[in-house]
Amino acid sequence: METAINFIDLNAANVAFLFIVGFIGGMVSGFIGSGGAFVLTPAMMSIGVPGIVAVATNMCHKFPKALVGAIKRAKYGQVDVKLGLVMGASAEAGVLYGVHIQESIKRAFGEAGSSLYVSVAFVVVLAVVGGYVLRDAVKIYRSGNYHEEEQAGRLARWIQSIHIPGTMMYFKSVKAKVSVLVTIPLGFATGMLAATIAVGGFVGVPSMIYVLGVPSMMASASELVVAFVMGLGGTIKFAWGGYVDIRLVMIILAGSLFGIQLGAIGTTYIKPFMIKVVMSVIMMTVLISRALVIPVYLSELNLIATLMPETAKLLKNISFGVMVVALLLGAGIVLRALLQGMREHKRQHAVLEEATATD
Amino acid sequence: MKCKDKFEHFPLPNANAATGPLGMAMERQVLLGLEGDRLDERVLLCAANLCQRVHAGLEVLLISDDEELPARLARFFRELRAAGIDYRFFHKQGDLGWEIIRYVKTRKNIAFVVVESLEGREGKRGQIRPWRLLACPVVEATAKPVSYFSKRFYTRGENMFKKGKGKQTGRLLGFGTLTAMLYWLLFYHESQVLGLSTQGKWAFWAPVTIAFVISYTHGAFTGEFWDMLGVKAKKA
After folding, report:
1. A246 vs B24, B67, B210: nearest CB
2. Does the predicted interface ipTM exceed a cut of 0.90?
3. CATH code for the part of the protein at B7-154
């Protein structure tokens, strides 16, 4: 297949960067269930990987990583496999449609157009969904009820009350029957976004929490099953077009499989509402990062006055710096939760041993 | 049920029945029933071995009139900690059989009960046999060691735990070496592999297969890696 795709040359700096980004992305993914693509896709684009190759490569690394993460979290009893597979089925349709849009934009507007589309989609989704999740996390924190078991919201309770004969399915995470006619559009939206910007989890996880009433911990874990299903399907679709750079996939996977295990272990030490906190903080930071670089792509497409090369470079560098902050923020929160939790667990064990010895 | 039976093939009763908040399954436990004057080495090893094989925690129920913790048991707890097996200890007075029944009834996550022997505890004809009331298997660490076990498992406690650690190191090195070899192959033939994976159409199998294979070996390696470093999930 003849293609004008540019596959970058790898050097030591790029390899190290992608490994570290993969590790942190995997850690966050294991923690909050998203594909980690919100840092991986922009990270690859930052080193010159075209938008569509970044998304395709991310997709190919996502499904094996999601499989490993789902297996790990299933051992902790956090995965609703049935829900993941049901949503994954409709997500697959969304992926195919999203890929079709992505390819159409690339054909019509070239690499700059594709990159602009990905960046704008990032900004819109992260602003809407991230803002809502952040508001919810702050509300829970202020109420002081973050030690209590999560309750389904009004929307979720209404959804659970809907009964459409012949379409109802019981999901253990919801502890109720829900119509698949509700899960279909949620899965479709997740898949479409995943194929467009490889970040389906930012629609998938909040929709499970707020629309279906799935507890945060189980939503983030079950999303890994959805990620596996659509990742596999999306990879096949993108690979059919010859867009997958397997070298980048393997470098990112090398780091992310270390990280995803760590993130999954971290979830056993935290309160459920922390999932929302971590997700929203990272989403808002990455939103700023991608918003900064939009004028550069607009300029390349001559939609705005041409930016001076120095200005374009400065914006890209600042965008990159903010993305690094998002990365470090995510990693920091997860590691802190894990270390604090392990320390506390050891301390409790020591107290118990002391009590046992004096019994 | 004898300790020699293959636990891996024994279906765990109600494995999914025990759930905590948010629908999370509670970690399964092995209950070790002991009587203060009968602390046989073999029953301790049997219980620890079982925990390792089925990835369970240990709950130790000691029936004794003496309030003091036996020295052998304190040493056993140290050995468990060294082997990374989580445990809890309870001390009661009364009849071992009935205390075990009462205990198991209040805990939905007991997968196995381990006792030294059922001899003399089967009850007379017409009497209630307490073991029959349990919903989980009862493992009898018999007095006679079975040859298969005497070499591998009926050794001094620390040696047995060290063998487990050695196996883990072997797995870590094995998967690590395999992963390293696969990566070396991938990048040694970088241009050919990239050409194949970007060929498009039916060549889609190439990136998918490579991703599956390397994720299997590398996923196993990273799991063992964190386990060796002591980074483990918090047990319920």
Report:
1. B210
2. no
3. 3.40.50.620
